[in-house]
Amino acid sequence: MDIGRIGILGSGSWATALAKISLESTPEINWYVRRDDQVQRFKATGHNPDYLSSAAFDTDRITFYTEGSINPFFRNSDTIILVTPSPYIKHYLKKVKRSSMRGKLVINAVKGIVPDENLLVSEFLIQEFSLPKEQIGVVSGPCHAEEVAQERRSYLTTGSYSDELAHLMADTLSCDYITCTTSDDVVGIEFASVLKNIYAIAAGICNGLNYGDNFQSVLISNAIAEMNSFVNTVHLLNHRVITNSVYLGDLLVTAYSNYSRNRTFGTMIGKGYSVKAAQVEMEMVAEGYYGAKCVRELNTTRYRVNMPIMDAVYEILYNKQSAKETIERLSLKFR
Questions:
Q1: Which residues contact 201 (CB under 8 A, 6 or more apart)?
Q2: Which residue from 4, 34, 64, 106 puts its CA 20 to 30 A from 238's CA?
Q3: Which CATH class is domain 188-332?
Q4: Does 306 or 35 have the greater pLDDT score?
Q5: CATH T-level topology, domain 6-184
Q6: CATH 1.10.1040.10 spans which residues of the chain?
Q7: Binding positions for NAD(+)
Q8: What are the strands of the beta sheet with 29-34, ordered from one edge?
Q9: Residues 97, 104, 196, 324: which is the catalytic one?
Q10: Least-confidence region, from 91-95, 135-139, 279-283
Q11: What does the mean pLDDT of the chain come to?
Q12: Active-site residue 196, yes or no?
């Protein structure tokens, strides 16, 4: 197994951070950024014109692909890292021919669920492309793109059904400012990355409602317990440690950091913004909004885990329930 040439699918802040990290250890990468004008500005300035503009790139080491060239992008890449927002991942993958996907290593860095299908990205790859599990991986962890751009010490976990792939990716993504660990918990990591965004929205809502640090600490304590119950019901794994950074650490940084778009989105909702108004003003995707709907549907139809925090977020976002009254009711369930 060989990582070969890495291809980055996506051009947002997290995609830009992973491109920067990848270029620390590989001479060249492929990068699918969709828009021609973005590529032109990228080449002219040496940085992504729309995201993480402080991160400098040697564009001679990047082969760009744009709209209409997704199959050549896949064919010319050996390892593809998927880094588009979850609402769009199906749109892109539906354009990929099975022949273009054959033999590829595919790493999921999408912190969301495939919409409509209510499938994890790994599940969608297996179902849609018959991709062997051993060729699928996931990368996650408490790693804000903005701090990667500043080369601040950060931590990632690479997971795969193949121990070899997990370690290859960990070696590839490790550098002076990135520490990588490995895991075989693909399902748990993927679900945790979805749930932490939902809980970060809850933290933001409470912030917007002027709940203090004392309440936030209890909210997150209950959130990690809720996450643990859900992932253990979906995929019981005796050696999973929910306090590891890829679970608890990612939840904490997403719930507390000012860089967190999910927390920001929730704060706006708590202050009285409508969902649409908050989305328009942010101009960025808050993954937890879509994740709340997917997890709610999965939990209602299949798993039936007691998830009061997730339910509260869903009711506020999708059923237009009062944020103040819903959080007040939720608070009575905490200890």
A1: 262, 263, 265, 266, 269, 286, 288, 289, 292, 313, 317
A2: 106
A3: mainly alpha
A4: 306
A5: Rossmann fold (3.40.50)
A6: 188-332
A7: 145, 261
A8: 62-66, 29-34, 6-9, 79-82, 105-108, 136-140, 154-160, 178-183
A9: 196
A10: 279-283
A11: 96
A12: yes
